[in-house]
Amino acid sequence: MTNAFPKRLTTDKISEIGVNLVSTIINDIYGWVFRKTHLEHDYGVDAYIDFVTDDGFVTGKFIAAQIKTGQSYLSKNGNTHWYVDSKEHLNYFLNLPVPILLIVCDPDKKECFWARLDKDHIDFREKNWRHPIPKNQRLSSTYKDSIIKIFGKIEDHISDFERDNELMEMTSNDSFIQYCIPKYDIEKRNIRNLRDFISRITRNEKLTLAVQGRLYICTYGYEDDIREVHQIKEVRRWVKKRERI
Question: What is the pLDDT of residue 5?
Fold first, then answer.
């Protein structure tokens, strides 16, 4: 065959095997979405992985993945494989707004191993850097829950808005909002619970206007105390601290 045609390099073929292996695991075993990066937009991230719940809901949470394939990334001895890359990519990875998985693949055994990039685990060298990937940390169903934690907390913001509407409806009549502070919070001068509560009911202008003049704060646990509330030293100290909110 003449040499007048472009030739597919062996390295390209091996690299594609790794990407395809990871894609199959993410899509079929994990049930998530594997978004491969187009070559013209590939600056060091091979793909982005979208988290999908077991019920099939796409959450908006995603992480990045960089995949290396071949025997040169696989250690024959010890308990660790090593992901090796350039310093330029390291800077790029550490500035990403999302976590990144470093993945090395064995194209012969069709196995992949992963680790989350951790700055503290980087072995920085003169010409490059490397990151350890445990040999027992296979990209398989066993570690699905571990990777789920990397996506971070998933919040149901719609429920927050629905609760806001319910609160505004409740305060549209003559009712008021009562918040009771237990004696043990008073004694420990704990204002965190009250602060969090006030933040929840005043987190936007509509809510703040709805609860204005309708918040009643009281305490309990002093029912057998003959003193007036304002005469109790612990209460006065708590109120003084509360005024800093």
Answer: 45
Low-confidence ranges of the chain (pLDDT < 70): 1-12, 39-43, 157, 160-175, 243-245
> How distant is the alpha carbon of residue 32 from its chain centre?
16
- Show me where the domains of the chain are located: 10-151, 157-242
Q: CB–CB of 50/33 below 8 Å?
A: yes
Task: Tell me the sheet residues that pair with 115.
Answer: 102
- Report whether 235 contacts 182 (CB < 8 A): no
The token pair that represents 233 in the structure block: 């030293």
* pLDDT the model gives residue 168: 65
pLDDT at 7: 43
The pTM assigned to this predicted structure is: 0.65
Tens-place pLDDT, residues 15-34 = 788 899 999 999 999 999 99
Q: How far is CA 9 from the centre of its chain?
A: 38
Cα separation, 98 vs 104, in Å, equals: 20
CATH architecture of 10-151: 3-Layer(aba) Sandwich (3.40)
CA distance from start to end of the chain: 79
CB contact at 8 A, 52 and 58: yes
- The answer for residues whose C-beta is within 8 angstroms of residue 45's C-beta and 6 or more apart is 37, 64, 65, 66, 96, 100
Sign of CA dihedral 58, 117, 86, 140: negative
Please name the residue ranges forming H helices in the chain: 10-24, 87-94, 144-151, 157-170, 183-187, 192-201, 205-211, 233-242
- Report the alpha-carbon distance of residue 67 to residue 28 in Å, rounded: 18
